[in-house]
Amino acid sequence: FELNKEKKKKTLSSGNSTTSNDNPSQSLSNSSSSSFSTFLDKMRARLSAGHFRMLNEKLYTCSGEEAFTYFKEDPSLFNMYHKGYQEQMSHWPQQPVNIIIKWLKDKNSSMVVADFGCGDAHIAKTVKNKVFSFDLVANDPSVIACDMSNTPLDSSTVDVAVFCLSLMGINYPSYLQEAHRVLKPCGWLLIAEVKSRFDPNTGGADPNKFLEAICELGFTLELKDFSNKMFILLYFKKKEKQNFKKKGIEWPELKPCLYKRR
Ligand code: SAH
């Protein structure tokens, strides 16, 4: 999970035999027709992987509002995005969403959770808690489709706000402001983010600046866990007293997370 270094294109040996043929599909022997369909499968996989990377880059380089409109016009793009996302995730030794689920299971299930950028709503489907799941498109009836900088929740009603790999838009501070609004005093803010976005050696943000900005918004840092190779985990609590500020906070820019070609 790092900045793309394009692998050299693999030669498509299975496809070459058909190019000089007038009507390849009719004259192929069984074995070459199966290699032709393998070739087509590879081409399809490559196209959908390319499409996923394009959508992913789009989400990291536009605002949440723009992304919301974009997917509203063509919700099928969202499914395409999530197919690619799941494919990428399947290569991670550990998924941050499972660590968050374990954390929730170890706590009291009466805690109300808001899952910001829930994807397939895995948290809501796995824990006993009441979970409000938000994403740009509702691909499950339990999900509320919205731009998460503007959720329908009342202020100070939630015990845990979760952002699991979802701080994507260029206006990400407004998502954290929204989480601050809906959280009860002393409520938890849990953030899992891609580690490379916080590696200043490769153009990533200074993690301390990110932590400071969140604290200025009105949180205290309870725990930071940088032990995983792929992602960082941050646990904050909303300050009890509302002496937070929203303007004048210096938010570091978070670079997009571009996925490797596989
Ligand atoms: N949290 C899930 C999915 C992570 S993918 C998991 O860990 O498996 C990131 C998700 O955030 C995507 O589904 C994307 O659509 C969503 N997202 C990004 N920006 C958003 C916004 N402004 N409002 C709502 N959802 C958003």
TrEMBL record:
Where are the stretches annotated Disordered?
Answer: 1-34
Which residue windows does the record flag with biased composition (Low complexity)? Answer: 20-34
* Compositional bias of kind Basic residues: 1-11
Location in the cell: Nucleus, Nucleolus
Please give the biological process terms from Gene Ontology that the record holds: chromatin organization; methylation; rRNA processing
Q: Its Gene Ontology molecular function terms?
A: methyltransferase activity
Keywords of the record, alphabetical order, are:
Chromatin regulator, Methyltransferase, Nucleus, Repressor, rRNA processing, S-adenosyl-L-methionine, Transcription, Transcription regulation, Transferase
Signal peptide region: none
InterPro entries assigned: RRP8, RRP8_N, SAM-dependent_MTases_sf
Give a GO cellular-component term: nucleolus
Please tell me which top-level EC class this enzyme sits in: transferase
Per the UniProt entry, the Enzyme Commission number(s) are: 2.1.1.-
The main location class comes to: nucleus
Matches recorded under PANTHER family: RIBOSOMAL RNA-PROCESSING PROTEIN 8 (PTHR12787)
Q: Which family does it belong to?
A: Belongs to the methyltransferase superfamily. RRP8 family.
Q: What does this protein do?
A: Probable methyltransferase required to silence rDNA.
Q: What is this protein called?
A: Ribosomal RNA-processing protein 8
Species source reads: Dillenia turbinata
